[in-house]
């Protein structure tokens, strides 16, 4: 009997993941070249959510740009508001009352917790934990949204901060509600840890997957949990303190391996640190005005200013150029997630389709911010 | 042959028997699948601190009815470059075998369509045909996601069929028969106590074969969207959906029959015991689905070949030796022995496999 040698010809094939796909967290397209299940190459295609916000802002007054910033990273609108207002205040030299600074910090940290809850929840959803983690985390995020609702009447796009302060003072019921939240939240975070931290399948799926080395993270100028997960202790709140962050005590959690698991752990630890900051801020909350005297139409002197903050997703910066008129001459956003996304191709090459999704999920992007 | 197994009060005619049980099986499958869908959605909702379907009828009980009506009246879309015939045939090929499996599952003593003396073999053989339907669907859809899903399905079924069948052999040895009816008769104590390792391996393997979490890679909605059935709509999709839940029903019925003592139990009527046990097994399946993330394809393979396969072989060996050495000993004496064997083996293998507290190195 003769044996016939059979060679099966294989070739890589291109799969379009997105723009409409449940795990792209928006409308993002990955033109992925696959060899079987293994990723050979990945071309990101963005721009599906481009709304021309930077150009729109040039037609609006400085105060009128705040709602636009809400629509950048809609999961962290408060942080966007804050970063933008800081930039305008720097440009025009507007002072901010003490109480407003504290309120801003409280809002920004609450927003960080809310944003990380969604990030961790959807990361686990990408891992295939069917709905349970994200529903648990949305349950807690809901309580933060209730707090925001109390303050400004909005639940997603807050438009709360103003140039020179915040739009209105905290209502009476806010502080007790926040205290109650601060008392309950650590228990919930512990509950997530009990359920997930040592979960065998989660460990198997995320440990050692999608490694971003320390050097590479610095080279691509990554920021936020992605950078800290790679072991770089870099947090704008500490490295370049803005607002009143130099008054608070908190740690900067970092990872060691730079894999998906570390990024997930960093986010969970950051929630704990945010709770610490919130407690201190609540303790020191002074009485007084919440907004300094600012003319209705701010006319900053001609010049430029750049201000950045540690947003939940990383180093969020606003670059404003003024020509002395009531509208910014140039309004540029340094979106952390766009820059973090550039690491994607290097991180996922050689991994499998299932890993692509969780690596992408662990970067925690918000497409509205990437595309602007 | 069939006649001899029947209780005297059943219709004395073979064709009447066939007709009655075909109707019973069809109704049973359709109703329990609907009940399962409702139950899964409600149970999962409670576990996830949601409400679940609660609008259609009391406690949302009519939600599956509404869903199936919707599926029935939806437009059937066939992709323009699909293989039309195969695309049409695939849901049928996937669904029919699942129904056929129930021909040998006893609902209570003697109440089954055909008491085949090769019952288990029949179940194993027939239920594998579903894979063919799934692959046909994945291939004919002319969609890359569905192709990936179908490939995963083939890979996992080929791997998991072996440990599943091997873990069943222990049961067959104990019962001394391949007939499901005889196996239930032999279970004076449920075989889950005598064959704990066999149960564990069978359950894990079966979960992988029917694409339930944590092995639902073939239709991983967060990765390949819906896998093989992405290009299906209308009742064709409905058939796949039906087949998927009917498979879960098959697994629950098989676990009940082979390991939990089938219809046997005190106080309650036999058929009710059967339903209660099936429901309990299905609850465990749902419970697992809400609790754990999904494994990756290579980890799935590694689990089959490095963990389940060797353990299934050892389990078979241990059972065979026990039966040879102590042929007349009471089964109760084997219970502690086999539990000890299971615990030692699973712990040992976890160490070897680094499944313990570390991560899977594959």
Give me a quick take on this structure:
Chain A has 372 residues and is an alpha+beta fold. Chain A has helices at 53-57, 66-70, 77-92, 98-127, 132-152, 174-196, 200-206, 214-219, 225-229, 236-239, 260-284, 336-341, 344-348, 353-363, 367-371, and strands spanning 13-17, 29-35, 38-45, 161-162, 165-166, 303-311, 314-322, 330-334.
Distance between the termini of chain A: 67 Å
Q: Could you state the order of secondary-structure elements of chain B as H and E?
A: HHHHHHHHHHHHH
Low-confidence parts of chain A: none
Total domain modules of chain B: 1
Describe the protein.
The complex is a heterodimer of chains A (372) and B (362). With 372 residues, chain A is α+β, with helices and mostly antiparallel strands. Chain A folds into two domains: 1-50, no CATH class; 62-363, Orthogonal Bundle (Cytochrome-c3 Hydrogenase, chain B), CATH 1.10.645. Chain A is 47% helix and 13% strand. Chain A is built from 15 helices and eight strands. A three-stranded antiparallel beta sheet of chain A has the order 1-2-3. Chain A has a three-stranded antiparallel beta sheet with strand order 6-7-8. Chain A is globular and about 95 Å long. The relative contact order of chain A is 0.20. Chain B is mainly α. In chain B, helix 4 packs antiparallel against helix 5. Chain B is globular. Chain B has helices at 2-5, 14-47, 63-73, 84-101, 119-140, 144-175, 180-186, 191-194, 196-209, 234-259, 270-291, 297-325, 331-353. The chains are: A alpha+beta (372), B mainly alpha (362). The interface between A and B is medium-sized, with 35 and 34 residues.
């Amino acid at each position: 009997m003769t044996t016939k040698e059979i060679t099966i010809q294989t070739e890589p094939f291109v799969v379009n993941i997105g723009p409409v796909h449940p795990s792209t967290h928006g409308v993002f397209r990955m033109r992925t070249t696959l060899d079987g299940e293994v990723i050979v190459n990945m071309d990101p295609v963005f721009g599906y959510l481009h709304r021309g916000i930077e150009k729109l802002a040039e037609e609006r007054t400085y105060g009128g740009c705040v709602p636009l910033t809400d629509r950048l990273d809609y999961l962290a609108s408060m942080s966007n508001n804050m970063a933008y207002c800081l930039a305008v205040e720097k440009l025009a030299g507007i002072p901010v009352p003490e109480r407003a600074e504290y309120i801003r910090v409280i809002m920004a940290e609450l927003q960080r917790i809310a944003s990380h809850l969604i990030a961790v929840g959807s990361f686990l959803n990408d891992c295939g934990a069917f709905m349970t983690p994200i529903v648990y985390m949305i349950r807690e995020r809901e309580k933060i949204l209730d707090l925001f609702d109390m303050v400004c009447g909005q639940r997603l796009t807050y438009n709360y901060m103003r140039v020179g302060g915040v739009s209105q003072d905290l209502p009476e019921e806010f502080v007790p509600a926040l205290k109650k939240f601060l008392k309950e939240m650590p228990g919930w975070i512990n509950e997530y840890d009990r359920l997930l931290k040592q979960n065998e399948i989660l460990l198997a799926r995320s440990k050692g997957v999608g490694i971003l080395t320390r050097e590479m993270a610095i080279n691509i100028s990554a920021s936020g949990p992605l950078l800290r997960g790679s072991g770089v202790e870099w947090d704008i709140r500490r490295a370049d303190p803005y607002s009143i962050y130099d008054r608070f005590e908190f740690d900067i959690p970092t990872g060691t391996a730079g894999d998906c698991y570390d990024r997930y752990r960093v986010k969970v630890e950051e929630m704990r640190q945010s709770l610490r900051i919130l407690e201190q801020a609540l303790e020191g909350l002074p009485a007084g005005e919440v907004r300094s005297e600012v003319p209705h139409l701010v006319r900053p002197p001609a010049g430029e200013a750049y201000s950045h903050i540690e947003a939940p997703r990383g180093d969020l910066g606003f670059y404003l150029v003024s020509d002395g008129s009531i509208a910014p001459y140039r309004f540029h956003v340094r979106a952390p997630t766009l820059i973090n996304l550039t690491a994607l191709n290097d991180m996922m090459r050689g991994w499998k389709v299932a890993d692509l999704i969780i690596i992408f999920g662990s970067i925690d992007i918000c497409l509205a911010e990437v595309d602007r | 042959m069939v006649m001899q197994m029947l209780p005297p009060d059943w219709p004395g005619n073979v064709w009447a028997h066939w007709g009655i049980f075909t109707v019973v099986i069809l109704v049973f499958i359709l109703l329990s699948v609907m009940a399962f869908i409702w139950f899964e959605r409600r149970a999962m909702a409670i576990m996830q601190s949601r409400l679940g379907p609660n609008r259609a009828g009391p406690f949302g009980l009519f939600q599956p009815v509404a869903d199936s009506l919707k599926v029935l009246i939806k437009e059937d879309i066939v992709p323009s470059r699909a293989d039309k015939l195969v695309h049409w045939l695939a849901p049928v090929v996937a669904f029919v075998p699942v129904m056929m499996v129930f021909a040998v599952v006893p609902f209570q003593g003697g109440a089954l369509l055909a008491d085949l003396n090769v019952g288990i073999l029949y179940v194993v053989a027939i239920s594998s045909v579903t894979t063919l339907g799934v692959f046909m669907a994945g291939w004919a859809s002319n969609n890359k996601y569905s192709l990936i899903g179908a490939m995963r399905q083939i890979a996992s079924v080929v791997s998991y069929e072996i440990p599943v069948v091997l873990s069943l052999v222990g049961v067959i040895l104990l019962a001394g028969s391949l007939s499901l009816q005889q196996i239930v008769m032999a279970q004076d104590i449920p075989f889950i106590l005598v064959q704990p390792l066999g149960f564990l391996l069978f359950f894990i393997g079966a979960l992988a074969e029917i694409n339930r979490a944590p092995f639902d890679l073939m239709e991983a909605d967060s990765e390949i969207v819906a896998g093989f059935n992405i290009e299906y709509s209308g009742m064709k999709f409905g058939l796949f959906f039906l087949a998927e839940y009917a498979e879960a029903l098959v697994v629950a019925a098989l676990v009940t029959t082979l390991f939990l003592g089938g219809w046997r139990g005190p106080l309650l009527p036999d058929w009710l015991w059967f339903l209660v046990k099936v429901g309990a097994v299905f609850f465990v399946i749902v419970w697992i689905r809400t609790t754990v993330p999904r494994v990756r394809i290579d980890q799935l393979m590694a689990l089959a070949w490095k963990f389940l396969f060797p353990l299934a072989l050892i389990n078979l060996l241990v059972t065979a030796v026990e039966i040879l050495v102590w042929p007349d000993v009471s089964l109760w004496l084997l219970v502690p022995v086999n539990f000890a064997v299971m615990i030692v083996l699973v712990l040992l293998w976890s160490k070897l496999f680094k499944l313990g507290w570390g991560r899977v190195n594959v």
